């Protein structure tokens, strides 16, 4: 049994982002944001962790937030400081 190539095309992953939010999140994922690991050291955050950290930020505000992080002395430090809940 042979599978028609046009049927397989819909399962191929696209190169670009699938939505506006995914495109904006990709800028944060490519920056190598550091997070603490259980051993007390630092490691790069996974894409899933970054998406969860930014889940409460509206899509419209992600571009402005990225510009603020890029303008800071340390992208990773500002990223965590800005997302930290204020008590």
From the alpha carbons, calculate the radius of gyration and give it in angstroms: 17 Å
> What is the string of SSEs from the N terminus onward?
HHEEHHH
| Sheet with the most strands, sense and barrel status | 2 strands, antiparallel
- Based on Cα principal axes, name the global outline: elongated
The largest sheet has its strands arranged as: 1-2
Number of strands: 2
Terminal CA distance reads 63 Å
How many individual helices? 5
Give the DSSP E fraction (strand runs of 2 or more residues): 5-15%
Mean pLDDT equals: 83
Structural overview:
With 87 residues, this protein is mainly alpha-helical. The chain has one domain (19-83). Helices cover 51% and strands 7% of the residues. It contains five helices and two strands. It has helices at residues 5-9, 20-29, 47-53, 59-71, 75-83; strands spanning 34-36, 42-44. It has a two-stranded antiparallel sheet. Helix 2 packs parallel to helix 4 (59-71) and helix 4 packs across helix 5 (75-83). The longest helix is centred in the last third of the chain and has 13 residues, at 59-71. The relative contact order is 0.13.
């Amino acid at each position: 049994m042979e599978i028609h190539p046009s049927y397989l095309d819909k399962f191929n992953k696209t190169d670009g982002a699938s939505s506006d939010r995914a495109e904006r999140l990709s800028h944060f994922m490519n920056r190598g944001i550091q997070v603490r690991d259980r051993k007390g050291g630092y490691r790069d955050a996974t894409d899933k962790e970054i998406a969860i950290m930014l889940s409460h930020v509206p899509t419209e505000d992600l571009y402005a937030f990225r510009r603020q992080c890029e303008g800071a002395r340390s992208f990773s430090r500002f990223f965590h400081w800005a997302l930290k809940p204020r008590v």
